[in-house]
Amino acid sequence: MATVGILGGTGPAGRGVALRLASAGHDVVIGSRDAERATTTVNAMDVRGGTVVGASNEEAASCELVVVATPWDSAIATVTSLRGPLAAKTVVSMVNALAREGREMVPLYPPRGSMAAQIAFALPDSTIVGAFHHLPASMMQDHDSGLEADVIIFSDSDVARTQVASLVDQMPGLRAVIAGSMSLASAIEAFTAVAASINIRHRVHSYVKIAGL
Questions:
Q1: In what order do the strands lie in the sheet with 149-155?
Q2: Which of 34, 115, 146, 168 is the S-S candidate for 176 at Cβ 3.0 to 4.6 Å?
Q3: Which residues pair with 73 in a beta bridge?
């Protein structure tokens, strides 16, 4: 089983991924700028299966595979500061650049078109994979929510895509769907705004399922 670090993992999305990874038997390190905050967060989580511990982002970056779950506006500064320990590793971006306008979320487009591309530029010695963008955090954190969601995966590395897809398929309630290369990053990230706006408008926790596979 892999050891997975989650940078900025104390937020709802990061906690949800951590719990599902642990349920699949993996050991997870939730990182934060404040290690004490990370430990307090983990102590309040309903962990089943593997282990989840709280630590600093530096400790999380030392894991075999690393997920970036920070807010979009701090993601680049965070990964840049950890460029050394993240080198030669698969780094999974679940970061979405979004802003709220009234009852809708709207996508923001960073200079390179997507947050995954921005992270790839900041980490030239790492392999970037995009995943976990369209998942409802509340259902991810609830073991009994009945979640049956597809996780759309993209990367320029077939090996890394397959590695992350295998990990996702082990997580309860999730199925991996490999979409293709980093060229799809902008469209996939931006669709998160559509999913979030639907949830706000209809007061639901919807998620993505791809029919026909």
A1: 52-56, 27-32, 3-7, 65-68, 90-93, 127-130, 149-155, 174-180
A2: 168
A3: none
